[in-house]
Amino acid sequence: MPKRDKKNRLTYKASGVDINAGDRFVQMITPLVRSTFRSEVLGDLGGFSGLFSLDAKKFREPVLVSGTDGVGTKLKVAFLADRHDTIGIDLVAMCVNDVIVSGAEPLFFLDYFATGKLAPEKAVDIVKGIAEGCRQAGCALIGGETAEMPSFYNDGEYDLAGFAVGVVERSKIIDGTKLHPGDRLVGVASSGLHSNGYSLVRKVIFEQLGLSVQDRLEYGKNVGDELLTPTRIYAKLLHGLMNQAEIKAVAHITGGGITENLPRVIPSGFAAKVQRGSWPVPPIFPLLQQAGGVEIDEMFRTFNMGIGLIVVVAEEHLERLLSSGHTLGENLFPIGEIVATTGEPEVIYAG
Q: 141 to each of 115, 186, 190, 347, how far by Cα in Å?
């Protein structure tokens, strides 16, 4: 093998991976991560794993609940707008909102961040969002992985994945097994598009309408502001409602919309009858429908249509739940009921 003189010898940095930049990034995010810690967190950043001491005395039969997700092609909008401080909230929301539907309390969160070339300042903005999402959810950010992979991603682009773990008492798991005909569906407002359907959103907004992230939509809102509005995190609100009324089922209205997600928490022999028009629909949805020529059924099986969470309660608990929502500063919308059926769970739309 031929000798290589010192000035031409390869280093990891010369191949595209800057370890020093990675070290600087960790130093910059350390206070952000620590700001999310709960009393159960053991140790600090820098270890091979995150440690969390579960207080088993609080439970008779604790059940751990886990979830993982990403942000999808909403990241493409962040790239276009060069705005990265809210996308981390989306990451936490997409994981935590799945975990809480069983009644679980979110405990801790981990993230995976991969990019072609690490830009510490941009990466810090991303972690700011993740830390903010964890604070909103009440969980601790106890670990993560940063992967710098030259030539794997386009310049300036990255990908994110998240992992959440929660806990619920076995006897208090919400699983839909107590549903009865006549139980009421109550919708909780979304903050907009959340993090679903962005392949269709981008096609309509950027291709068919020819808008940029700097332009304004017909109802006056900036495109970038609308499309990058963070996904709502429902953890604290849901637990507040659970303390006031018995909740029989909860559905996170994520990818697949109401049509696909509500049946996931309904057992066979029941269906959900949803009354369209019983809640205010944010203007982004009719704009997408009209500009894209999207059928209404396709809208409801792609987007949340303004409802990010649906809870199911007995008829006699409806007013108590609505009153609790008002006390917590939340407008809740009665949007339908559970009905008996002879088939598999489905959503039946009225109106």
A: 20, 31, 24, 36
Task: State whether 191 and 294 are in the same domain.
Answer: yes
Both 126 and 257 in one domain: the answer is no
Q: What's the rounded Cα separation, in Å, for the pair 53 and 41?
A: 6
Is the residue at 76 inside a domain? yes
Q: Phi first, then psi: give them for residue 152, nearest 5 degrees.
A: -85, -35
**Cα distance between residue 146 and residue 115, in whole Å:** 8
Q: Does 1 map to a domain?
A: no
- Residue 305 domain-assigned (yes or no): yes
89 touches 136 (CB < 8 A) = yes
Whether 247 maps to a domain, the answer reads yes
* Whether this model's pTM surpasses 0.85: yes
* pLDDT 10s digits, 147-174: 999 989 999 999 999 999 999 999 999 9
- Please answer whether residues 92 and 136 qualify as being in contact, where contact means their C-beta atoms are separated by less than 8 angstroms: yes
Domain CATH code at residue 243: 3.90.650.10
Q: Which of 10-14, 44-48, 189-193, 266-270 has the lowest mean pLDDT?
A: 10-14
Which domain range does residue 69 map to? Answer: 6-172
Residues 238 and 98 reside in one and the same domain: no
CA distances from 320 to 186, 316, 326 (A): 12, 8, 10
Q: Distance between CA atoms of 144 and 323, rounded to whole angstroms?
A: 40
Q: Which of 109, 204, 102, 108 is nearest to 160 (CA)?
A: 109
Nearest residue to 284 (alpha-carbon basis) of 298, 304, 259, 254: 304
CATH code of the domain containing 15: 3.30.1330.10
The residue assigned the tokens 């994110």 is 160
